[in-house]
Amino acid sequence: MNVAIIIAGGSGQRMHQDIPKQFLHVDNKPIIIYTLEVFQRHPDIDAIEVVCIDGWHQVLKAYAEQYGIDKLKWITSGGDSAQESIRNGVYNLRDKCSADDIVLIHDGIRPMVDVTVISDCIEKCKMYGNGVTALPHNEHVFEAKDEISTAQYIPRDKTRCVQTPQAYGYSKLLAAYEEAYRREIGIYGACYANTMMVDLGETLYFAAGSYKNIKITTPDDIELFKAMLHSKKDTWLK
């Protein structure tokens, strides 16, 4: 079984809105529904779990029913950080997933993920035990010396920009979270499943990403998402 854990536990403070950003409407549809619809349509996704901000569970259930998201099987509460929310989602599947199931972790505010990205993530996980969506950097990457300066750059061919989804075997992922929280490794700050795995000594394997797979964090991202929704590829582009 392939299970998608959709992380929608944040309050979206950087968006400066009265409601969580994952529930903001774009073209009269909540952002979280755009995300869920992609996983709903994917033939290899068997079930969906959403890690949802408290107070919005019933709203999410109503939207899922309205838009026909019948693969949504479980809703659990988020934590104080993205890492805690992922942990809650993983722990909630203890009696629902078998050891060899594949779990895909995805940000609920990445609504432009496409089926090819999800498929490659699953395939890489089958091949290597995990698959982490990633892209080459098109910009130069510099290490900050302080808030205003730098004296060191990182060669672009040595870096990758990691996105979601990220796929892991369930037994491996569950054991990793139990170990990380027991040893207090890779669980603080802006840590995520992928950074935690590396902190625990795991090797990660890249899956194909997409530059369209944006993370909606600011009002500018909303405008970019709207433009993507209404854009059509020019016929002369290959």
How would you describe this structure to a colleague?
The protein has one domain (2-131, 164-230): Alpha-Beta Complex (Spore Coat Polysaccharide Biosynthesis Protein SpsA, Chain A). It has 7 helices and 11 strands. It has helices at residues 31-41, 57-66, 82-92, 115-128, 170-183, 193-199, 219-230; strands spanning 2-8, 25-26, 29-30, 47-52, 72-77, 102-107, 130-136, 141-144, 150-154, 160-169, 206-208. Strand 4, helix 2 and strand 5 form a beta-alpha-beta unit.
List the helices and strands and how they pair.
Blueprint: E1 2-8, E2 25-26, E3 29-30, H1 31-41, E4 47-52, H2 57-66, E5 72-77, H3 82-92, E6 102-107, H4 115-128, E7 130-136, E8 141-144, E9 150-154, E10 160-169, H5 170-183, H6 193-199, E11 206-208, H7 219-230
Parallel strand pairs: 1-4, 1-6, 4-5, 7-11
Antiparallel strand pairs: 2-3, 6-10, 7-10, 8-9
Query: What percent of the residues sit in helical stretches (DSSP H or I)?
Result: 25-40%
N-end to C-end Cα span: 35 Å
The count of DSSP E runs of length 2 or more, i.e. the number of strands, is 11
Radius of gyration: 18 Å
Q: Give the helices and strands as they follow along the chain.
A: EEEHEHEHEHEEEEHHEH
Level-1 CATH class name: Alpha Beta
Strand order of the largest sheet: 5-4-1-6-10-7-11
| 3D shape | globular
> CATH topology, anyone?
Spore Coat Polysaccharide Biosynthesis Protein SpsA, Chain A
Strand % is 15-25%
Q: Which regions have little confidence, pLDDT < 50, spanning 5+ residues?
A: none
**What value does the average pLDDT take?**
94
Q: CATH architecture, please?
A: Alpha-Beta Complex
Describe the main β-sheet briefly: 7 strands, mixed
Structural class: alpha/beta
- CATH superfamily descriptor: Spore Coat Polysaccharide Biosynthesis Protein SpsA, Chain A
Q: How many structural domains in the coordinates? A: 1
| Number of distinct helices | 7
